[in-house]
Design goal:
The complex is a heterotrimer of chains A (273), B (280) and C (261).
Chain A: E1 3-12, E2 16-26, E3 31-35, H1 42-49, E4 57-62, H2 72-80, E5 82-85, H3 97-102, H4 111-119, H5 124-132, H6 149-163, E6 167-171, H7 179-196, E7 199-203, H8 207-213, E8 216-221, E9 224-229, H9 236-243
Parallel strand pairs in A: 3-7, 3-8, 5-6, 6-7
Antiparallel strand pairs in A: 1-2, 1-4, 8-9
Chain B: H1 17-37, H2 48-59, H3 68-103, H4 120-137, H5 140-151, H6 155-180, H7 184-191, H8 196-230, H9 237-247, H10 251-279
Chain C: H1 8-28, H2 32-36, H3 38-49, H4 58-93, H5 101-114, H6 117-128, H7 132-157, H8 161-168, H9 173-207, H10 214-224, H11 228-258
Helix pairs in contact in C: 4-5, 4-7, 4-9, 4-10, 4-11, 5-7, 6-7, 7-9, 8-9, 9-10, 9-11, 10-11
The chains are: A alpha/beta (273), B mainly alpha (280), C mainly alpha (261).
Chain lengths: 273, 280, 261
C-alpha cells in the first residue's frame, strides 16, 4: 500500500490540536519510523493512517483513494489490509491467545468462518506459527490475562503478522519489552515487511531501535514534521532539537547515550539476522 | 494429543475441545427433555382460538375504567398493599433481629471461655439456622397460600406471610452483617461479664445500624412488590382485586390497576433509593 | 466505622419506620394478638400439625418428582429464553444499534420488568393455554426485562477498544462483537443469568398457582382440597430443588470462571 497525506490536521475532542499540518508520502514497501517526544502526535498520525480517526482537514490518500469517501464495503476491504499493533493491545482478558491471534484475519474471513472459529479454532497451525515468531507458541491455549504486559504486546504483534496486511502500523510496539526482546520483535516486523514487500510505519520511543532497523526516519514534534531523512543523515543535533524540551538526553532503550558508528556505512549492519 | 509443538508433527489439537463438546452435549441432553417437559411449543401462541381470547381481553384494556367508585376501590387497595407490606416488614424485623442475634457466634458467651453448658449453644444454634433456611426457602406466596387457609382471606394472611418469609431472609443477612463487622467491642463487653443484649446494643449495633437499615429498606421495597403478587392467592391488597378483575376478563379494570401498581412500585423504588443514598 | 461516627439518618429512618408500621397496623385493623393467641392459635397449630407426616407413598412421591422436574424445566427454559431475549434487547438498549432505538429498547425492558411474573403468567395462560409453557413464557418475559437491563449496563461499561481494533482491521460489526466484546461481558452475563435462574426456580413453583404447571399447580390443588399431607411433601420437594439448584449454579459459576474463549 502507498499512503500520501498532505497538510493533514487533526483536532481531538477537547480542542487539543494533535496534528498541525503533516505532509508525507510513503511508497509501497517502504519502512518508516516515526520518532519524537511524547505528545508529538505519533499515535494520532498512526491512527489517521489506519483510518481509525478521520482527519479534521487536509488530504489522506491510501492507494490513491480517500478512504473516507469509499463505500462501506470497500472501506472494510481496505481496512482488512491494514494491521495495527497497539501500544497496549486491546485484547479481552479471558480470550485465549489462539483466538486473539486468529481474530486478526476476521476481515478476510467470511462471517461464518469467523463464527465457526469460536467453536473450534479454524487455523491452529497458522496461529502457532505467528506466535512462534515471537517465542510465544508454548502459550497458544493460555488466556490473555495469564500473560505479562510485554507478552501481551507480542501477542498484538503476532495478530498483525497473522493478518498479513499490506500496511503495518505499529504504535510503540515494544514499549514494555526488554532491549533484547524489543530488538527481536522490531526485527520480526521488519522481516515481515521486507519479506512480503509491504509498507511498515512504526512509532518508536527508543531512537536506537529506529536508527538500527529503519531506512527512513521521520521526526515529529508538536504535531508537525521536524525532519524526514535516512538514518545516516539524522544528526545528533537534530535529535537533541527534537527532544530538547522533554529531556536533555535522547531516549534509547536502556537510556545509554546514543552511540553510532557515525561515518561507518550501513552495510556493517546485517539486514537479515 | 500433544501440546508441545516440538514433539508434534502437526498442529496441536485444542485442549478445550473435549470439555466444550462435553458441556455442549450435556447442555443438549438437559435442554431437550426440559423443552419437552415444559411443553415448549411457540406455535400454540398463534393458535387462532388463543389469539382470539387474548385479543378480546387486550381489546377490553382500553378505555381504562376511571369511574369514581372504582378509583376509590383502587386507592383503598393500594393503601392496603402499602400497609400490608409495612406491617409485614415490621414483624419480620421484630422476628429476624432476635433470631440473628441468637445464631450469631460473635455474641456467643461460650466461645469466650469455659461456660456452663457450653454444648447447649450449638445445640440451639443449629436448629435455629435450619428454621431460618426453611422460612426463606419457601416463597412468600406459598406462605401466603398457607396462611389464607389458616386465617382466612384478607390482608392478615399477607402480613404473616411476609413476616415469616422476610424474617428468614433478614435473619440471615443481619447475621452476616454482625459477623462481618468488628466484633471486638462486643467481645470486650461479654468478657467483662455483660449480658448478650448489652453486648449487642453497645458493641455491635452501632457499627451495623446503617447497613441493617439500608438492607431493611431494600427489603421493604421488595415486600411491596411481593404483597401485590400475594394478593393473587387471596392475601388482600391490590393483587386480590386485580385477580378478581382478571378472572372476569375485565380488561379496563386490570389496566387501571396495573397502572396503579406501576405507580406504587415507582414510588417505592424512589423512596427506597433516596433513603439508601442518605444512609451511605 | 466506629461508634463515634454516629449519624442521625439511620435513627431518623428507624423512627419514621416505626410510625409507618404503627399506622399500617392501625389501618389494617387486624387484631394480630387475638389471631396468634387463644382459640385461633390452637386452630393454627392444628392446621400446621395436619401437615404431618408428609405423604410418602411411592405413587405420590413419583407425582411430586414429576412436578419438581416440570418446575425445573419451566425455570430452565424460561431463564434460557429470557437470556436470549435480554441479550437481543440489551444491544439496542446499550446504544449499539444507533441512538433512536436506545430509549425505545429501554422502555420495552422497563415494561417487561415492571409487570410481575404472576401477572404475566395470567396473561400467558390466556395466550397459550393452561400448562407449563405459559409458565416458561411468563418467566421469560419478566426475567428478559431484568436481564436485559443488567446486560445493557454491562455492555455500556465494557471497554470499546477490543471491538474497535477489530473493526479497524476490517472485521464486520457482528464478528467484532463476538471476538472483541462478548469475551469481556460473557462471564458477567452468565453469572447474572445463573443468579436469575436460582431465583426463577422459586418463581416457577409459584406460577403454578394461576395454572402455569409444575409443583405450584399441584400444591394449589392439594391445598384447595385439604390434602395437607401431600402439600407437605410438595413443600419439601420445593425446598429440595431450591437447595440443589443453588449448589449446581455455584458449581457452574466456578467451572465457567476457569475456562476461556
Amino acid at each position: 500500500m502507498n499512503v500520501a497525506i498532505d497538510n493533514l490536521q487533526l483536532v481531538l475532542p477537547g480542542e487539543h490540536r494533535a496534528l498541525a499540518g503533516v505532509t508525507l508520502a510513503i511508497g509501497r514497501g517502504e519502512r518508516l519510523a516515526v520518532i519524537g517526544p511524547s505528545g508529538a502526535g505519533k499515535t494520532s498520525l498512526l491512527r489517521v493512517l489506519g483510518t481509525a480517526l478521520r482527519p479534521t482537514a487536509g488530504a489522506l490518500a491510501i492507494d490513491g483513494a480517500d478512504p473516507w469517501l469509499l463505500p462501506r464495503a470497500r472501506l472494510r476491504r481496505l481496512r482488512s489490509g491494514i494491521g495495527t499493533v497497539h501500544q497496549s493491545p486491546p485484547l479481552p482478558p479471558r480470550q485465549r491467545l489462539v483466538t486473539a491471534v486468529l481474530a486478526g484475519r476476521l476481515g478476510a474471513w467470511g462471517f461464518w468462518r469467523g463464527l465457526a472459529s469460536l467453536a473450534y479454532p479454524a487455523d491452529i497451525a497458522g496461529a502457532r506459527a505467528a506466535l512462534a515468531r515471537l517465542d510465544l507458541d508454548g502459550r497458544l491455549f493460555d488466556r490473555c490475562d495469564r500473560l505479562s504486559g510485554g507478552q501481551l504486546q507480542r501477542v498484538g504483534v503476532a495478530r498483525v503478522l497473522y493478518q498479513q496486511p499490506a500496511l503495518i502500523l505499529a504504535d510503540e510496539p515494544v514499549s514494555s519489552l526488554d532491549p533484547q526482546l524489543a530488538d527481536h520483535t522490531v526485527g520480526e516486523l521488519h522481516r515481515e515487511a521486507q519479506g512480503r514487500g509491504v509498507t511498515l510505519v512504526a512509532s518508536l520511543h527508543a531512537v536506537d531501535l529506529a536508527l538500527k532497523w529503519f531506512p527512513r526516519i521521520v521526526g515529529l514534534r508538536d504535531g508537525a514534521v521536524a525532519f524526514d531523512a535516512p538514518p545516516v543523515r539524522v544528526s545528533d543535533r537534530m535529535l537533541r532539537d527534537l527532544y530538547g524540551a522533554e529531556s536533555p538526553i535522547v531516549p534509547t532503550q536502556d537510556n545509554q547515550p546514543l552511540e553510532r558508528p557515525e561515518p561507518k556505512p550501513r552495510a556493517a549492519q546485517p539486514l537479515c539476522r | 494429543m500433544s501440546l508441545h509443538p516440538v514433539a508434534a508433527p502437526g498442529p496441536p489439537r485444542d485442549p478445550a475441545l473435549w470439555p466444550r463438546l462435553g458441556l455442549g452435549v450435556a447442555a443438549l441432553a438437559v435442554l431437550w427433555p426440559a423443552l419437552e417437559i415444559a411443553e415448549f411449543r411457540p406455535a400454540t401462541l398463534l393458535d387462532p382460538k388463543n389469539l382470539e381470547v387474548m385479543g378480546r381481553f387486550l381489546g377490553t384494556f382500553f378505555p381504562l375504567v376511571l369511574t369514581p367508585e372504582f378509583l376509590a376501590l383502587v386507592v383503598r387497595s393500594t393503601v392496603e398493599t402499602l400497609a400490608l407490606a409495612t406491617a409485614g416488614i415490621a414483624l419480620a424485623i421484630g422476628l429476624g433481629l432476635p433470631l440473628a442475634m441468637m445464631v450469631s457466634e460473635s455474641l456467643s458467651v461460650s466461645r469466650i471461655g469455659p461456660a456452663r453448658r457450653a454444648w447447649l449453644a450449638p445445640a440451639v444454634r443449629t436448629p435455629l439456622r435450619a428454621l431460618l433456611i426453611v422460612m426463606r426457602s419457601v416463597p412468600e406466596i406459598v406462605w401466603a397460600l398457607l396462611f389464607v387457609r389458616a386465617v382466612g382471606l384478607g390482608p392478615a394472611a399477607g402480613v404473616l406471610a411476609i413476616a415469616i418469609n422476610y424474617a428468614g431472609m433478614l435473619g440471615k443477612v443481619y447475621f452476616e452483617i454482625f459477623e462481618a463487622g468488628d466484633t471486638r467491642p462486643a467481645r470486650a463487653i461479654l468478657e467483662s461479664g455483660g449480658a448478650r443484649v448489652h453486648a449487642f446494643a453497645y458493641g455491635i449495633l452501632p457499627v451495623a445500624v446503617p447497613e441493617i437499615v439500608s438492607y431493611s429498606v431494600y427489603r421493604w421495597e421488595c415486600a411491596i412488590r411481593a404483597s401485590v403478587v400475594m394478593g393473587f392467592v387471596g392475601a388482600g391488597g391490590l393483587g386480590q382485586q386485580m385477580e378478581l378483575s382478571m378472572r372476569m376478563l375485565a380488561g379496563g379494570e386490570v389496566a387501571t390497576m396495573l397502572a396503579a401498581f406501576l405507580l406504587l412500585i415507582l414510588l417505592a423504588d424512589t423512596v427506597s433509593a433516596v433513603l439508601r443514598k442518605a444512609l451511605v | 466505622m466506629t461508634p463515634a461516627a454516629f449519624v442521625w439518618q439511620p435513627w431518623a429512618v428507624v423512627g419514621a419506620f416505626l410510625a409507618a408500621a404503627a399506622a399500617s397496623f392501625a389501618y389494617l385493623g387486624v387484631d394480630f394478638v387475638a389471631l396468634l393467641t387463644g382459640e385461633s392459635a390452637r386452630q393454627m397449630a392444628a392446621f400446621a400439625a395436619g401437615f404431618f407426616p408428609p405423604d410418602a407413598s411411592p405413587e405420590f412421591l413419583a407425582r411430586a418428582a414429576h412436578g419438581a422436574t416440570e418446575t425445573l424445566a419451566i425455570s430452565a427454559v424460561g431463564t434460557l429464553v429470557a437470556t436470549l431475549l435480554g441479550t437481543v434487547l440489551a444491544l439496542p438498549a446499550a446504544g449499539r444499534w444507533g441512538r433512536p432505538l436506545k430509549p425505545l429498547a429501554r422502555g420495552v425492558l422497563n415494561f417487561l420488568r415492571a409487570i410481575p411474573e404472576l401477572v404475566w403468567a395470567v396473561f400467558m395462560v390466556l395466550a397459550a393455554g393452561l400448562g407449563p409453557f405459559a409458565g416458561s413464557l411468563a418467566l421469560a418475559l419478566h426475567t428478559g426485562g431484568v436481564l436485559g437491563r443488567l446486560f445493557a449496563e454491562t455492555l455500556e461499561n465494557a471497554p470499546r477498544e477490543p471491538a474497535q481494533a477489530l473493526r479497524d482491521a476490517g472485521s464486520g460489526a457482528t464478528a467484532a462483537f463476538l471476538y472483541g466484546t462478548l469475551p469481556v461481558v460473557l462471564p458477567q452475563f452468565v453469572s447474572y443469568a445463573l443468579y436469575r435462574w436460582e431465583y426463577n426456580i422459586r418463581m416457577a413453583a409459584v406460577l403454578g398457582f394461576v395454572g402455569a404447571g409444575g409443583l405450584g399447580q399441584m400444591l394449589y390443588v392439594a391445598l384447595s382440597v385439604f390434602k395437607t399431607h401431600q402439600a407437605a411433601t410438595l413443600i419439601l420437594a420445593l425446598i429440595a430443588i431450591v437447595t440443589v439448584v443453588d449448589a449446581l449454579s455455584a458449581w457452574l459459576r466456578r467451572f465457567l470462571g476457569r475456562s476461556g474463549t
